[in-house]
Every structure is written in structure tokens, then in C-alpha cells.
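Help wanted!
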Amino acid sequence: MRRIAVMDDFLSSEHKERIGETAARLGFLVDYFARAEDVLPVLDSYEIFFGHDAVEVTRQGRNLRWFACAFAGIDPYRSDGVWANPNCLFTNSAGAYGIAISEHVIMVLLMLLRQMPEVQRRMRRRDWRQVDRIRSVNGLRLTILGTGDVGTEVARRAKAMGAFVTGVRRNVQKAADPAFDNVYAIRQLEELLPNTDALVLCLPGTLETEGILNRARIELLPNDALVINVGRGTAVDQEALIDALRGNRLGGAALDVVTPEPLPPEHPLWQAPRLILTPHCSGDMALGYTRDRVVDMFLENLERYAAGEPLRYVPNRRRGY
Amino acid sequence: MRRIAVMDDFLSSEHKERIGETAARLGFLVDYFARAEDVLPVLDSYEIFFGHDAVEVTRQGRNLRWFACAFAGIDPYRSDGVWANPNCLFTNSAGAYGIAISEHVIMVLLMLLRQMPEVQRRMRRRDWRQVDRIRSVNGLRLTILGTGDVGTEVARRAKAMGAFVTGVRRNVQKAADPAFDNVYAIRQLEELLPNTDALVLCLPGTLETEGILNRARIELLPNDALVINVGRGTAVDQEALIDALRGNRLGGAALDVVTPEPLPPEHPLWQAPRLILTPHCSGDMALGYTRDRVVDMFLENLERYAAGEPLRYVPNRRRGY
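Answered by r_m:
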């Protein structure tokens, strides 16, 4: 019997039922594991793995023929060195997280524009005083680094709220969603930054995106600009960001991703002013829609796999997304 | 010379320049006052007043021919007893606040759906743990009480984020914005509440809206429903709301308006769980767009007034909006 190892820490009983039925019909047996490490001792019995946080599975899975990653980010799997079977098929779940992450972006964008951290501080002291200046998404010049699923969902929502949306991407030849008013190439970033009210980073973790928001680029932003990162913490020079916030050379920032994670208790980011920190939760599996979509994508591919058809949702492993 | 008294606590120098130019061209002289009470000693010299928080101006303005209210809410001016000149023209600024207030609603809606108060509590303790369940605007059944400027702007934004939007209004005959999937009459509210994931109140303060969200209606909402009030605090039975939050019979609430305001330090609302309190700031004049729009509306009407044409933005004073 051909076997599938599935991590079930994000699955409901309905999800398991659906996976079980489809697998049985296609001639597969499914075993469930709470953590990736629980699979390792018996890994050689499995042809397919569906889960997350499982670089040891790719590292040790000599017989593994398909690794289905339940996350969108694939940075841990980029290097050839982590693949025991160099011919293992690899799919991810990019596309399942756009709604959850874009809603997080809109939330923190509004919180920063409306000085919500200061309002909340006053409320905790039972101090009923309004702040004297708020801003609006309406008319805001929003620059989005990364125009994939997440960047596009952010653009759609911001556009519906009246923002002027510029997308920045690697390949400007490729068509972008109509929610983007403009699309520029990454090499034009320097020209865009002085005219950016809010910069949203939704980039995968790759060699190219590491440190992309460096000190010089932060300094090109207007003094009241906002920075929001929901991609990977490595994209931002955190020290330069803290300096800019402390020196009032930035209006505010919201980081859902940082380096390292979890952020150590003594890290200076905890005390940076006008910074909204969240624990890499913008796109996690806390949202039911995301889990449903991740399962849908896996089952769609399982049908294809069984039929010998090419899989969908195949990232470029070396490129990193 | 015909004279206009203008409160300038919300005006920029550009606003004053525009008001001065238009007034001069139309044959008016403008004097500025920081507070309504500063006008009172010289009130009889003014034909027009443009400002806010000024019920003493209507009460004492026997010679006043036009009172231009810079706010949208007109509850203080409803009764005949507060008008020294029963024939005084009355305009308000409903329509200037929809963008600011709707962005507040989207912000607190997302904060409640994503358990942001709990995330922020953990972050303040430097506790890097995610919450286990968040929800999305996508697919949310949103019921909006009040389909005017504010309700419509909320509906448009929520619709763009995938919500199913039901509007509830007094007059179902009148056409509603296409952002509403459905429009019901207030008398049908009881049928709607059990199928409401989030209830947004954007109602004016009138006799009809007082206590509209009473204990019985709160109990008709699902146990994880959210309640957001940006209209008037009088619309909600606060004691019943606190009981429902404490008893886990509501998912959460966000109140930007309460009774009384400011909320006294000993008030039990400060300690209600899963409640986001803000100091009546959702639609105040902190947003530049709002101030610009309020000035635009006044100047448009000043042209009409000088030409002897009927004014726009005239609320029904006795009805209350």
C-alpha cells in the first residue's frame, strides 16, 4: 500500500475525513502525526509528506517522492543540501494566505494612520483624550514590495479604500492585477521611496530580498512614512529601522516578522516607539479559510499525483518562491 | 456689513484664506473665535455662525439667520426650546465623516476578528505566542444599522473585503447603495440578529435609536458575534453589553461612543473583557479630509445663501438627522 504521512496539528476532523476519503479512493493509506519529528523514525515507509516546519523530513527522506508544504514560505528548503532525494516533487501553499495576511496589513495600516497605539495607551490609563491628527487610506500613496498573492490582496483592499497603489516586482513584464495603479521594477525602488506614504513588504525570504530595506532606503522615505513587513524579517535592517523610529524620521512601523523569531525579551525592538509588533501571526493557520484552502490545494494535487499529471503550486525552489 | 462668526479650532490657515476670500467676494466680514462661548457676548452682531458644540449660540442667537454645524450629529439641536430664532436656517456636515468613521470601523472589526487586544497584551509582556483562532471579514455576515453616509462607507469597504452586508434602515423604500447585499426595515431586526456575525451601529441620536440595542436583542446575537458602535452611546444598553461580554455571550465589542462621555474613571466599561474602547475619535476632525470637506460644504452653502438659493445639507431637525 502506498502511504501518506500527514501532520494534523492544523486539521479539523472534517479535513481528515476529506483527506481520508480522497486518499482511499486513489489507493493511498494515510497516517497522521502531530509533529514533523514524529515521522522521522518511520519516514522510509512514506511516499508523500504533507505538513510544515519539516526540513528534517526533506533532509532524511530518501524515499520521499512528494513533499507538500502547508506553508507558503519555502526559505528553509531552498538549498540542494536539505534534499535527500534530489528528485522529490515539491509543492507549497502560496495562495492560501493572501486573505489572512492582507487583512492584517489593512488592520495595522489603519492602526498606524489613526495613532491607535497612542489612543490605546491613553485608554489603559483611563485618559479620555483624543489624538490631534489622524490620516486616512483614502488618497494614501501605498507602495507594495512583492506583487504575488499577498501583495495583490493588499492592493485590492487598499484600492477599494481609495489608496494610490504602486507595486514593485522583479519581473515587470508579467501582468499585474488591475488593483495596482502602477508597477515598477525593484531597481526603481529609490525613485519611489520619497513619494511613498506607506511601504508594505510582502516578499519571500530569498538572497535577493535579504536586507532590501536597508538604512539608505529607509532614509529616502518621508519623515511620516509607515513601514509594514509581513514577508520575512530578513528583508529589513532592524537597527536602522529602530534608529529612524527613535529619531522621528519615520511615522511608524508594524512588523509581523523579525529576526530572530521568537524575538528575545532583551531585544531593542520591544521598546521602539510607534512600532506595532505581532508574533508572525498575520498569515498563520489561525484562520479557518486558510486551513481549508491548504487542504483543498493538497487534495487537488493528490488527484493529479495519482493520475500521473504535473502538480500545481510548484515553487521555484532555488529562486525561493 | 453682514458678519459671519467662525470657530477656527479646526481650521488651517489655508481654510481661513478660502473662507475669507469667498466671504469678501460675497460681501461678508468674517471674525474667528476659538470657542463657541467666546462668540456669545457679541452674538447679536452676527448673521451666520459656523462651528460646533454651540447649543448656547442657537439658544441665545435671536438675530442669527443661519447656523452651520461643522459636525454631523445634531442631537443637541433637536428640540424647539434651544432655538431663540425659530426661523434660523440650520445645516450640518453629514457626509464629511463617512471616510474617517468607516476606516475606524474596519480597523476595530479586524482587531476583534484577529483577537488583537489579546495579541497586544501578550506583546506587552514580551510573550511571543500566537492566538489559536482568528476570523476574517471574508464571508462575514455584517449587519449595519443605519445606511446613511457612514453606514454606506462601511458597507463599501466590508463588501470589498468579501463580507455579506445587510443594511437596516427606517425607510426601506429609499434606494440603498449597491454595496448592501440586502436592506431590511428596523422592525425586522429580531430576525436578522441570530444570523449576524458583526453588528455595526452608525445611527444618529434620536428618540427612536435610544436603547435600540437592548438586552433582549443582544441575547439574540450568536455567542461569538461582535458589536461595534460609532453612532451615539445612547443606542446601546451598556449594562447588558458588559454582562454579555463577561458571560461569554458575545465575541467582543468596540465602542467609540458611550454614555456618559468622557467615560468616568470608575465606570465598569473600562474593565469589560474583549472590549476596545476609543474616546469618540472615529469621526472627529483629526482627519484632514474631514476638515476640508466640512469647509467645502460650508462655502458651497455660503454661495447659495448669498444668492438667496435654498441651502444644501439641511437635516430634519425634529427627526434628528
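OP: Thanks! One thing I noticed: The first strand of chain A starts at residue 2 and ends at 7.
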